[in-house]
Design goal:
Length: about 90
Amino acid sequence: MAEKAVSLLAFILARAAGGRGVSIVPSHAELTTQQAAAMLNVSRPYVVGLLETGEIPFRLVGTHRRIRFDDLKEYQRRSAATSRAAADELGV
């Protein structure tokens, strides 16, 4: 446990030293479509499309979509793996 804490602190300090920000978000946190879009660096309508096609699970709160942070990170992992596989296939 202590090793993980030291590793996390080193990561945070390295990011801060490089002028980059760090956000700490509970894994069970729910994000708006705008927050998810910002994390993925895409438009909000693109995120809505991902939700509607089932690429990312979500729930409705009234008429507002909410995305679990864990689900968004899982989508990012899958997307990165698909991109790596495509690049490998092209020999890049």
